[in-house]
Amino acid sequence: MKKIFTLALVSLGLFAAIAANAQSVKFGIKGGLNVTDMHLSSKVFKKSNQMGGFVGPTAKFSLPIVGLGIDASALYDYRSAKVNTPLGTEETIKQQQLAIPVNLRYSIGLGSTVNLHFFAGPQWGLNIGDKDFKWDKQSSYSLKKSNFSVNAGLGVTVMGNLEISANYNIACGKTAEIEPLKLAEDLTKDLVKKESSRNNSWQIGIAYFF
Question: Is the model's pTM score more than 0.90?
Answer without folding.
Answer: no
